[in-house]
Amino acid sequence: MCQYCNCDNELSKHDYTFNPTKGRREFILDSMAATGGLAAAMSLPSTQAFANMTPPEDEVVRIGYLPITDASALLVAHGMGFFEEEGLKVEKPTLIRGWSPLIEGFAAHKFNLVHFLKPIPIWMRYNNNFPVKITGWAHTNGSGLVVGKHTGVESFAELGGMQVAVPYWYSMHNIVLQMALKNAGLEPVIQDQTDPLKPNQVNLQIMPPPDMPPALAAKKIDAYIVAEPFNAAGEVLAGAKMLRFTGDIWENHPCCVVCMHDDDVNKRPEWSQKVMNAVVRGGLYAQENKEEVAKMLSREGKRYLPMKAKVVEKAMTDYSPADYQDPKAIKHPDWDIGRIDFNPYPYPSATKFLMEQLKETLVTGDKTFLDNLDIDYALKDLVNYDYVTNAMNKYDVWDKVPGVNPADPTNRKEVFEL
């Protein structure tokens, strides 16, 4: 069994060979051709593509998630019985190892409640006309860029000529990383790992989060940017160094968002409200009980995540500037944020900032849909603010989560400082 991700493979059996064709398909649903007919359906007009993908008639909550702390609000809501307390039936959450199969499961209505990297529903809704709706944020902060001890890297500027893994092209991680690289005078590229790089180029590749720590330990990559607990796992198990926490670059940034189907949001308002009530309660409990939640999520607890409790606890709580001086991974201690935090309100300013930056971010495949995307329209069309607002009001959450201006709780200013 692998010590890094607790999968059935031994460490030596992980495949880290970068296949550029496969990597470049990863971000788009047609990469799923090997697992079913969804890819073919996606190439059809949307009315045909989803004609046979009808949801179950029952109202059971079916959660799909990746084994990252981004899913904490959903998992805590399940583990603490919050869904049942709202009068809902809920299945045991299903762990998925990669973003593409999670998207596939959601598109096929296997799941009706998921967390997605925030750019994913943007791409799904406006590139593929898939009826997905953001109903809240799953968390804030909770990611970082770690470098291998073999690199000696202590700044973004020193990443030139290196191989860096990201979890998905359409991710906050890819956006923030590329902004930081460009700021340091480097050029992000996407090419075969065996092709030579110029000194000012950084090659990016897609890698599932559980594969990142062992790949770094094996020196197959030089760095990776990802959600917790895989940064903590890299530090504890692979000798990695935290170069910079993303929450120290973009204050209280969103990463994963809570997503539901349009049909549920529009046609099942009572059900949707109860779902979001439970999720908001889960996020608040996680914010106020990080050590307890880390143990609950871990391998020694309810086994939602494959990591040991010490790794998950580090991922949830270890954010001391004194411990991250070499290199200096925390440059804004005055921001008073945590390594991961939980504010479920989906601030429009953050969505707008992310959409604007996504247009400037290198990905593979066709992203021309962004050229004509009306961002102001998308802010209203993509996100449902009602259920999360009602839940935050009901459970008096506003003054208990970070990043809220009491005088204007549903608006904020985005702070991004490299």
Secondary-structure map:
Layout: H1 20-26, H2 38-42, H3 46-49, E1 63-65, H4 72-79, H5 82-85, E2 94-95, H6 99-107, E3 113-117, H7 119-127, E4 132-137, E5 140-141, E6 143-147, E7 163-166, H8 172-183, E8 187-189, E9 201-206, H9 212-217, E10 223-227, H10 230-237, E11 241-245, E12 256-261, H11 262-267, H12 269-288, H13 290-297, H14 309-317, E13 340-341, H15 348-358, H16 375-381, H17 386-394
Parallel strand pairs: 1-2, 1-3, 7-9, 7-10, 8-9
Antiparallel strand pairs: 3-12, 4-12, 5-13, 6-10, 6-11
Model description:
It is a single chain. This protein has helices spanning 20-26, 38-42, 46-49, 72-79, 82-85, 99-107, 119-127, 172-183, 212-217, 230-237, 262-267, 269-288, 290-297, 309-317, 348-358, 375-381, 386-394, and strands at residues 63-65, 94-95, 113-117, 132-137, 140-141, 143-147, 163-166, 187-189, 201-206, 223-227, 241-245, 256-261, 340-341. The longest helix is centred in the middle third of the chain and has 20 residues, at 269-288. Helix content is 34%, strand content 13%. The strands form 3 sheets. A 6-stranded mixed sheet has the order 8-9-7-10-6-11, sandwiched between helices. It has a 5-stranded mixed sheet with strand order 2-1-3-12-4. A two-stranded antiparallel ribbon has the order 5-13. α12 (269-288) crosses α17 (386-394). The model is unreliable at 4-51 (pLDDT under 50). It is globular. With 418 residues, the chain is α/β, with parallel strands linked by helices.
